[in-house]
Design a protein that fits this description.
Blueprint lengths: L1 E6 L2 H11 L4 E4 L4 H5 L5 E3 H17 L7 E5 L4 H12 L3 E4 L6 H11 L3 E5 L7 H10 L6 E5 L8 E2 H7 L7 E4 L3 E9 L2 E8 H14 L7 E4 L6 H14 L2 E4 L5 H10 L4 E5 H8 L3 H4 L5 E6 L17 E7 L5 E5 L12 E2 L14 E4 L4 E5 L27 E9 L6 E5 L4 E4 L2 E4 H10 L5 E7 L3 E7 L3 H10 L4 H4 L10
Parallel strand pairs: 1-9, 2-13, 4-5, 4-6, 5-10, 6-7, 7-8, 12-13, 12-14, 14-15, 15-16
Antiparallel strand pairs: 2-3, 10-11, 16-17, 18-19, 19-20, 20-21, 21-22, 23-24, 25-26
Helix pairs in contact: 3-4, 3-7, 5-6, 8-9
């Protein structure tokens, strides 16, 4: 039940499309979903998606989850993730997005930090039994009251959400649809450590608008999303862009290049959203013959300092838009120039489209006195990144900060006036979408005993890659797994060719 429509939420956007074209194709699963989760791929119309969303929302309400409580979600890039996020919002809940590589240690910390009341996962993802991980983490989180999942062979005590969709319960409760309410919580790592970053529906919509307007996406687009939706950028560039364009969202669980190309062609996708390095590799192929339907490519850069030195985009059939990501702090985009080179980013308002210089959809970028890049605007949440208040005898509170310092080193190019991002934050290592404090790596290596080393080495594609050395690498892997650490740290100690 909807009351007092103050400002749009994601569910309001979905219902508007539903009213306009209930039989339109809404969601498409990865073609290889059976390999990823053991479940058959789904094709849902907006009406079919609405029925599933309502049934899942009813399940959450009947499970006793109060309004505005947090529900943790660790799911692959499949239809179930989209349905769960929208169902949680329809039930008045806040979604905490958990990356797939998180294991028991990270899961437990995040559950306790957010006070989550429930956790949703899949029985298995890429061969890993995530249902057991969720159950074990939930046992260490005092706030958890409900554990549920998709798929077969769920452990005892875990409720089946597939069964909830089949039962089609009609339970509802009054919800105030207000875009200013909290919608998601994602997680970042800064110099001060691990921190949850809450965002409202309006923050998400602002982020998606920045992407869709800069890349000039058409209404009714068929969007292929091949970027993990476990972050602010991931969700804004898939689910929210889909709701803004009112088209079809096709999902690809990263990565199988052959399956990805097959999906794009079979589903006639005109838009691809993917990590920038993957997009550039596709652009180097004969895209006109291999991917003839593509017209828009959105490349997301987890290492934005690499954009300026990236290869020229040569696939003229499709326009490439570079999206600069700064952890969970925020993002902005710049469409490639006609010659395929990255567009210069000038300090100030980042508006889209370019012919409207007064637009502030994407917000503002500028340099701090420290020589770092700062973000300000409608998608940014300064309070989540506010530094701890220094001890002071003053009774006068300092004025609130209206920007976030990304901690990326930057300078102004004297000849062009453009911002040059020169280095990532000091002391933070990024491996793909996962960020660690370098001190944490040292701490985990110390626990392995004398002679153990765990470090991050520079990597052109992912920012960094982890490498480890111990007196017995196999025992080190076992020890890290028992500690509940994610596979990036565990596999850093894998045996390498020529190693004895």
């Amino acid at each position: 039940m909807i009351q007092n429509n103050v400002s749009p939420t994601l569910d309001v956007l979905f219902r508007r499309i539903l009213a306009r074209k209930p039989d339109g194709l809404a969601l498409l699963d990865p073609l290889n979903k059976a390999r990823v989760t053991g479940q058959p791929a789904k094709r849902l119309t907006f009406a079919g998606a609405d029925r599933a969303i309502s049934a899942l929302a009813a399940h959450f309400i009947e499970a006793g989850l109060p309004n505005n409580s947090v529900i943790a979600v660790q799911l692959p890039n499949t239809v179930e993730l989209v349905l769960t996020v929208l169902a949680a919002h329809r039930a008045g809940l806040v979604v905490a997005l958990f990356p797939l590589l998180w294991r028991q240690a990270e899961l437990t910390v995040a559950l306790n930090r957010t006070g989550a009341r429930a956790i949703v996962t899949s029985s298995k993802i890429d061969g890993v039994i995530h249902a057991d991980l969720a159950m074990n983490a939930a046992a260490e989180a005092f706030s958890i009251r409900h554990v549920c999942g998709f798929g077969t062979d769920l452990p005892e005590g875990m409720a089946s959400l597939d069964l909830a969709i089949e039962n089609q319960s009609s339970t509802t409760r009054p919800i105030v649809e207000d875009g200013r309410k909290a919608a998601i919580i994602s997680f970042d790592v800064t110099a001060e450590g691990f921190r949850p970053v809450p965002r409202t529906h309006l923050h998400l919509i602002a982020g998606a608008l920045a992407l869709s307007l800069e890349s000039d996406l058409p209404q009714g687009a068929t969007v292929m999303s091949a970027f993990a939706p476990t972050s602010f950028a991931g969700l804004a560039s898939s689910l929210v862009i889909w709701l803004l364009t009112g088209g079809t969202l096709s999902l690809h669980h990263p990565f199988d290049s052959e399956v990805l190309e097959q999906q794009i062609n079979e589903q006639f996708c005109d838009t691809l959203i993917a990590p920038a390095q993957l997009a550039l590799r596709l652009g180097e192929t004969d895209m006109r013959s291999r991917l003839p339907t593509l017209r828009h490519v959105i490349g997301l850069w987890r290492a934005p300092e690499q954009v300026a030195s990236s290869p020229v985009w040569t696939a003229q059939q499709a326009v490439l838009t570079d999206i600069y990501l700064f952890g969970e702090a925020g993002l902005f985009g710049a469409r490639r120039r006609e010659n395929g080179a990255p567009a210069p980013v000038l300090p100030g308002v980042q508006g889209a489209p370019r012919e409207s210089p007064g637009s502030s959809i994407a917000g503002e970028v500028f340099l701090t006195p420290r020589g770092t890049l700062a973000l300000r605007g409608p998608m940014v949440t300064p309070a989540a990144y506010a530094p701890p208040r220094p001890p002071s005898d003053s009774l006068v509170a300092e004025p609130p900060r209206d920007f976030v310092d990304t901690e990326y080193a930057a300078r102004i190019d004297r000849s062009t006036g453009a911002i040059c991002i020169t280095a990532p934050p000091t002391g933070i290592m990024a491996v793909g979408g996962y960020r660690f404090l370098s001190l944490d790596l040292q701490e985990w290596a110390r626990r392995l005993g004398q002679g153990a080393l765990l470090t991050a080495l520079p990597d052109r594609l992912s920012g960094h890659r982890l490498a480890g050395r111990a007196q017995d690498n196999s025992r080190a892997r076992e020890a890290l797994s028992e500690l509940g650490l994610n596979p990036l740290m565990v596999e850093a100690f894998r045996e390498r060719a020529g190693q004895t």
